[in-house]
Amino acid sequence: MRLRNIAQRVYKGAQLLFQFDVDLEGGTRSPLRVAGVYAPSAPDLASSSEKPIHLSGRDHALEEKSRNLLRQLGATKLAREVRVEWNPRMKSAAGRADYREKLISLNPLLRDHDLASVSRQSGSDIDRTLRHELAHLLAQFRAGRRRIAPHGVEWREACRALDIADEARCHNLPFATKVYAPRFIYRCPNCRQEFPRVRRIRRVIACLACCRKHNGGDFDPRFRIKLISH
Ligand SMILES: [Zn+2]
Ligand SMILES: [Zn+2]
Q1: What's the rounded Cα separation, in Å, for the pair 6 and 16?
Q2: Per-residue pLDDT for 60 more than 60?
């Protein structure tokens, strides 16, 4: 799978375009990459020769981790019952918690996201999502039969107990799951590098590689990328 990072910066009213590719597995290329965010697509997963270990089904390592966390917090009964699974049918949600079933479902796309963001400081997205969902189970477990709001005070308290005090309420994956094929192909007139885009570019944009090489990194209209097909 190929990861393309696109960073854009505004410079003197014009915009320079900076683009680089990182080849993760030397496999297929998926079409959409947004500003440093990796957007994996389902066909990529399917065509990958090296399948993720837990594409679907129970994850005993994560279950063990969950049990330990819950046990430390005194939720022994919940610790015994909790199950963690990878569910490939999940779409934009990163995770889900079902209290009746004591089941946490995780989106397998999280694995790819982890792969692409190993250098991030915030810890792995899998760990964070797991704790977010555990907080739902723990909050309801502590509340007993009382009805609680999904992301109310009880949940926030459980988040603090699980070391994710700053957790936001959003369950959605931090990347787009809908992948669009780029319709607009731009090209640098100098180095011939192509820049496929989903949308038409409305600003004045030049190839950063060429601006760096020949103009000290300043915007140079000679390297304005041009639309070659749409
Ligand atoms: Zn939630
Ligand atoms: Zn160029």
Answers
A1: 11
A2: yes
